[in-house]
Amino acid sequence: MQIVAWNNETNHIVQTSILRITPHNVCRWISMFVTAPILPNPDRIMISVGNKLIEIPFREPVLQRHEVVTCIAPLFGNEQWQQALFAAHVYRKFGTHMHLYIRSMVSPVYELMRVYEKEGYLTIQPWLRLILLTIPELQFNPNVNVEFRNQAAAQTDCLLQYKVSLLKRAHHFARRLWFTAQS
Hints:
The structure is a single chain. The chain folds into two domains: 2-55, no CATH class; 68-175. 37% of the residues lie in helices and 22% in strands. It has five helices and nine strands. It has helices at 74-79, 81-93, 107-119, 142-145, 151-182; strands spanning 2-6, 11-15, 19-20, 32-33, 44-49, 52-55, 68-72, 96-102, 122-126. The strands form three sheets. It has a four-stranded antiparallel sheet with strand order 2-1-5-6, with no helix packed on it. Strand 8, helix 3 (107-119) and strand 9 (122-126) form a beta-alpha-beta unit. The longest helix is centred in the last third of the chain and has 32 residues, at 151-182. The protein is globular, with a radius of gyration of 20 Å. The model has no long low-confidence stretch (mean pLDDT 84).
């Protein structure tokens, strides 16, 4: 596999291999892992599969500091919206930032969650819905065949988004422990 990256100065092509990280054969779609050095400050990243380039969407990490972040996978936020609504209030009470992935949601609940998002204690992020162009969804629905119904993918995505914020907090906490131990 090749990874192609662009920044505002140049582009770079890297040859790398795919590593299967799923230890079972239960799910029809599984997690794969690819690691490779790319350009600093990339504008676009694509993988080359056969003769096609497929763009890999990416975001900058969240820099705003949060004491605690709770990540709600799309499975639970979409199907159990009453619990997600209740959780938003509980998490706010205890100072936890809630990151909620959604595929779809009842409109009044979504509008209420948007109010919470504007107040800053909740983040709503749309979750991808896979659509295959060559196979009818009634024949094969990739969204229900993805490993653990996207729970692991959403939790990993959330951790990667907030790692800078949380690592700053962990580093500060570790320094306080070290100074306390030295006293």
